[in-house]
Amino acid sequence: MLHSEYWHLILKNENRIIHNSDRKYRYHCKSLESMGEEKNYSSWYYAREFNVFERNLDAINQTSYNKVIGTTKTFFDNGPFIDSSELNRIESATLRLYEIGQNHKKTLPRLSVRLGSLKGVK
C-alpha cells in the first residue's frame, strides 16, 4: 500500500502536467475587426482604418505569439497623420508575425502514411 505522501506527490505532479498542457494548447477565441474594402493608391485613408489595423495586429500578437512589436498608437481625425516610421513598424511587425506563423506551419507533425481508400493497392 502506498503512503499518503506518495499519493500527494503523484497528484501534485499530475496537476502540474495538466496545468502546463492546458496553457500550451489553449485556444484563444478573439474575433478580429473588419478591415473594410480593398484600398489602392488613389483611395483616401482615414485614421479609423489605421486604428483597426493596429487593434487587429495587437490582438493577433497577444493571442498567438506575444512578441514585442512596439507600442500601439491611436490616430484621430484631423490629428497628426501616420508617419513613415510608424508604417515601417506596422509592416515589420506584420512580416514578423507572418514569418513566425509560416515557421509554425512548417513544423506541424505530418502522418507518414496516407489515409483513405485503398484504390490501386493490391
Could you explain how this protein is built, in words?
- The chain is mostly helical.
- It has helices at 4-24, 47-65, 84-106.
- Helix 2 (47-65) runs parallel beside helix 3 (84-106).
Task: Map the helices and strands.
Blueprint: H1 4-24, H2 47-65, H3 84-106
Tag the structure with descriptive keywords:
single chain; 122 residues; mainly alpha
Summarize the structure in short.
By secondary structure, this protein is an all-alpha fold. The protein is 52% helix and 0% strand. It has helices at 4-24, 47-65, 84-106.
Q: Mean pLDDT, nearest integer?
A: 79
The coarse overall form would be flat
Structural class estimated from helices and strands? mainly alpha
Instruction: Report, as a whole number of angstroms, the end-to-end distance.
Output: 54 Å
Q: What is the rounded Rg?
A: 24 Å
Say how many strands there are: 0
- Low-confidence segments, given as residue ranges, are none
Largest sheet: none
Number of helices: 3
- Listing every helix as H and every strand as E from the N terminus to the C terminus, the arrangement reads HHH
In what range is the share of β-strand residues?
under 5%
Share of helical residues: 40-55%
